[in-house]
DNA sequence: AATAGCTATATTGTCGACAAAATGAGGTAA
DNA sequence: TTACCTCATTTTGTCGACAATATAGCTATT
């Protein structure tokens, strides 16, 4: 599959994308069970198609399946957040390091343009919500690493679970502008082809995000 | 699924394990196509079972599938090796760091015992071939990290692809005893609870292994 | 002879039905 | 009341058949 523009060619693809969006956005609540027959009816496809879609959700770490029992959407927990963000810090830090070396000048220019467009959003006081895919800052840097295995592990692996935390816990307040500034300095490091700094800034940025989300998660629990 | 002792409960599990072994060991040659009907006949199961097994092999990065065309076993290439080992270095380095903190004293003792038993093998001049699973040094340290996402990405993700390179390219000569010594010093660092050193030694160890495999891969190509 | 288009064949994608396993309700015994 | 067993129901696992797509071989035309 083309990682940049994932396109639904098969019926199972459509079901997978649809389900994934519903899960990430919280339309189906975290922790709930996925019934194969029910989903087959809802999407008007066969159970085989639903089963395949669910298996792909398991690969994304969005769903857990037990043999002969069924599949449930993962629950958002502090422990899960910590272990996820430890891995994320390592992998995206590496992505930033590689991107500083491997992105083309044009890609870097486009990335700067993207940030400028984000700046408009931030100034207008909106929530700096990051859409999935190509409009997402982190997504661009991941692809910029040019390392196929890294891209696959992040994009097909944990990217959407990360988004799920981000979307469902929300992100607002002072963190928004701070995050934007951090993005800006990461791109600056990449523009300077300073791989080491890019990695360090990215790791810090992800750590701050994690702290912010952890706080949110503990507040919500009360 | 229990990551430590993966157990085949369903027919699809058995097929998956069997196929995975055949691929890693090279019984089915790298790069060749997987025919669903043929495999269904060979293993005496339905195509649905085979399809599910193949999808799981895709998750392991052992197989690539294109819609309406089919699935092929990945080819072993220098580029693939490099990108794989970049990721591996980062993730297993992290695993070693976390293991230095999170492994219990008993687990560390067991790990030392395991290395002693490996020493017998090395002394007797055998190839220090690492079996899959619990007898594997790296496997133990991965589990010792106690980070669920990390464990999942490594064990269900790239572990068996790494083994595939190791098994099919072979490993012999002076690298064998060198690798053993490196293992030994990593365990030493973990015993001392020196997380930083454990990570650095693991990263170096993986880098050396990569260099050795790269050389082998280029030789074989001639 | 080379290429384009067509047809027959083979392969993957999807479906509905049946088999096997888990769940839950109801009843019985301690 | 509680624990355990039984049986009906629900849900998942597996299967064979059909539909849709790709592949390969053949023919015709330049």
Q: What's a concise summary of this model?
A:
Two copies of one chain form a homodimer. Helix content of chain A is 70%, strand content 5%.
Structural description of this entry:
The structure is a homodimer of 222-residue chains. Chain A starts with 10 loop residues before the first helix and ends with a helix. Chain A has helices at residues 11-25, 36-43, 47-59, 78-102, 105-123, 137-144, 148-169, 174-191, 195-221, and strands at 33-34, 63-66, 70-73. The mean pLDDT of chain A is 92. In chain A, 36% of the residues are buried. In chain A, helix 4 crosses helix 6 (137-144). Chain A contains nine helices and three strands. A three-stranded antiparallel beta sheet of chain A has the order 1-3-2. The interface between A and B is medium-sized, with 30 and 30 residues. The structure holds a DNA duplex (30 and 30 nucleotides).
Write the layout of secondary structure elements.
Two copies of one chain form a homodimer.
Chain A: H1 11-25, E1 33-34, H2 36-43, H3 47-59, E2 63-66, E3 70-73, H4 78-102, H5 105-123, H6 137-144, H7 148-169, H8 174-191, H9 195-221
Antiparallel strand pairs in A: 1-3, 2-3
Chain A binds a DNA duplex (30 and 30 nucleotides) through α3.
């Amino acid at each position: 599959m083309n990682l940049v523009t994932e396109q639904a060619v098969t019926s199972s693809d459509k079901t997978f994308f649809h389900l994934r969006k519903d899960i990430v956005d919280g339309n189906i609540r975290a922790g709930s069970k996925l019934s194969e027959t029910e989903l087959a009816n809802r999407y008007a496809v066969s159970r085989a198609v639903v089963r395949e879609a669910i298996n792909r959700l398991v690969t994304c770490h969005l769903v857990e399946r037990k043999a002969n029992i069924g599949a449930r959407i993962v629950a958002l927990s502090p422990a899960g957040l910590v272990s996820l963000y430890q891995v994320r810090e390592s992998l995206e830090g590496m992505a930033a390091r590689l991107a500083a070396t491997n992105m083309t000048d044009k890609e870097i220019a486009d990335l700067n343009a993207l940030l400028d467009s984000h700046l408009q959003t931030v100034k207008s006081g909106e929530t700096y919500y990051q859409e999935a895919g190509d409009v997402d800052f982190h997504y661009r840097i991941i692809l910029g690493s040019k390392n196929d295995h890294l891209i696959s592990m992040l994009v097909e692996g944990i990217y959407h679970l990360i988004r799920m935390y981000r979307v469902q816990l929300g992100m607002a307040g002072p963190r928004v502008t701070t995050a934007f500034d951090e993005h800006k300095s990461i791109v600056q490091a990449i523009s300077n082809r300073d791989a080491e700094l890019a990695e360090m800034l990215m790791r810090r940025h992800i750590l701050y995000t994690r702290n912010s989300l952890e706080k949110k998660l503990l507040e919500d629990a009360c």
